Every structure is written in C-alpha cells, then in structure tokens.
Amino acid sequence: MGRIFNDMDNQIFSKLAPELSGNTMSKAGHNYPFILRPLSHKIAEDGEDFRNRMNKLDIEEMEYLFQLAMEGKEDIRSLEEDDVDTFLELVEEKLSTEKLKELKAKLGMA
Predict the structure, then answer these.
(1) How far apart are CA 49 and CA 19, in angstroms?
(2) What global pTM score does this model have?
(3) Fewer CB within 10 Å of terminal CB in the chain, N or C?
(4) Rounded distance between C-alpha atoms, residue 29 and residue 64, angstroms
C-alpha cells in the first residue's frame, strides 16, 4: 500500500533518486509508501551509494525525514543494515546527538 507524496516528499525523493524523474510508483504500479525504503532496496547500488545520495540533503530535509521517522511515517528499521546506520549517523551529524537519542528510543534501539 502506498501513499501520495506531498511536495516535500517529492522534493526529497527527486534529490535522492534523480534518475527516476519524479516517478514515485513501484514496478507493481503502487505509490511507494516511504521515501527511503525504495532508495535503500531498489535504487542505491550499495551502502556507499546510499550514503552519497543522503549527503545531498540539507538540514531542513533531514529534519523532515527525522520527523517522519518519529511519527512512524518513514520506516527506518526496514532499510538495509548499513543504510540504517547511515541514516542514524546523519541525524546526529546534521541535526543533533539529542535527536539521535530520541530516534533510537522511538525505534527501540537505545
């Protein structure tokens, strides 16, 4: 089951996966339910590619993804293991250690 991406979702998805030209639909014809899961499992070639793509995000975009994760609207735990680590590291680097602690607590990773 997918969701309809809003403008910010589309902006981030397009920045992370420009080769898809804004297409947020899976090959099965459903809207992606998350921004990061298809990036982790289908688009990024490996953990390094995922990290390079994520490093393109600015603080506002990282804050937005952080908030989605805190609301359960972005499934961080379903990413590839290296990609989970990358996301958590970027939360700490771009946002704060306190937000990293909040997210880990929310995800049961504390």
Answers:
(1) 13
(2) 0.93
(3) N
(4) 26
